[in-house]
Amino acid sequence: MNRLVLRRPDDWHLHLRDGAGLAAVLPPTADVFGRALVMPNLVPPVTTVDAALAYRDRIRAALPAGSRFRPLMALYLTEATSPETLEAAAAHPDIAAVKLYPAGATTNSDAGVRDPSVLGELYAVMERTGLVLCVHGEVTDPHVDIFDREAVFLETVLAPILERHPGLRVVVEHATTAQAVQFVRSAGDTVAASLTAHHLLMSRNALFEGGIRPHRYCLPILKREEHRIALLEAAISGSPKFFLGTDSAPHARHRKEAACGCAGMYTSPVAMGLYAEAFENAGEIQRLEHFASLAGPAFYGLPPNDDTITLVRQEQVVPETLPFGDDVIVPIRAGGVVRWRVEPARS
């Protein structure tokens, strides 16, 4: 197969930053995806409905004229979040989720939740209203090995929450382990997971290919090959519980190539080509549409997009760097090639 037409996909986990950075990284997403769930970990974080809608408006203002791209917003959950805030969020059509960051787990998560078990009143509101809880599923206990933090979170944090709130709608974001796949499969219909292209294509060996590769460092960190295979099997399974979320996370080059570099990979410019590679590698590229365009909207209670994109099997060379405000970003596969690309729309 050298050409694939599919419903326009959505990205259910995206970092757009703000200001000049936003203007630089928004176009590759808006050109390809119909909608994206935009992460709220700005500085300061997006903790209120008013802040989320203001951020939405800044995103809309940065779109080219005539763009149909729709940003969907998430609130940053804190221990000070009120039930009234969640009620208001659930009632707004442009707010799709609340994001749980364990404090200190990843970029700009210091304002996150120290003890997720104490937020029962808030989970009850989300359970009653259907507002989705997206979780960065890692514990931050320094005694837990970094490669085990997701599995420990699911067992010791999320499982007890779901026992107390079985109707809570939860997305295990950027799942990275076989344990996460099994957790989601065995949970009820209210639990799903987003999967990134980089976790479908790379194991932790990629971090050390020819030396330390800071632009391949992300959180949750890349895992063993057995986990990558489990994620890929979930992606191609046709299960409605697994869908596309790039977790594309742009950082200026000097913040990645540093003594204490930031976590995150910038994948948006070639995201659909990477997912096509992963599905083709598994011999199941015909299942890409369900994963990328249908399962996510169904979980979030939205219709699929009403137009299409076309993927063509044609190598594209990835630039060494891309502009990012006054700096540059090093994208995934910088200087290399991706086997598939999205055919530009005809004007």
Description:
- The protein has 347 residues and is an alpha/beta fold.
- The protein is built from eleven helices and 15 strands.
- The chain has helices at residues 19-32, 49-62, 83-91, 120-129, 149-164, 178-186, 197-201, 225-235, 253-256, 271-281, 288-299; strands spanning 3-7, 11-14, 35-38, 70-76, 95-100, 132-135, 170-172, 191-195, 242-244, 308-312, 316-317, 322-324, 327-329, 337-338, 341-342.
- Strands 2-3-4-5-6-7-8-9 form an eight-stranded parallel β-sheet.
- Helix 3 packs parallel to helix 4 (120-129).
- The mean pLDDT is 96.
Q: Output the structural class.
A: alpha/beta
Major β-sheet profile: 8 strands, parallel
Rounded mean pLDDT is: 96
Content of β-strand: 15-25%
Q: Which key phrases capture this entry?
A:
alpha/beta; 347 residues; globular
Give a topology summary.
Blueprint: E1 3-7, E2 11-14, H1 19-32, E3 35-38, H2 49-62, E4 70-76, H3 83-91, E5 95-100, H4 120-129, E6 132-135, H5 149-164, E7 170-172, H6 178-186, E8 191-195, H7 197-201, H8 225-235, E9 242-244, H9 253-256, H10 271-281, H11 288-299, E10 308-312, E11 316-317, E12 322-324, E13 327-329, E14 337-338, E15 341-342
Parallel strand pairs: 2-3, 3-4, 4-5, 5-6, 6-7, 7-8, 8-9
Antiparallel strand pairs: 1-10, 10-15, 11-14, 12-13
Helix pairs in contact: 3-4
In short:
This protein is an alpha/beta fold. It has helices spanning 19-32, 49-62, 83-91, 120-129, 149-164, 178-186, 197-201, 225-235, 253-256, 271-281, 288-299, and strands spanning 3-7, 11-14, 35-38, 70-76, 95-100, 132-135, 170-172, 191-195, 242-244, 308-312, 316-317, 322-324, 327-329, 337-338, 341-342.
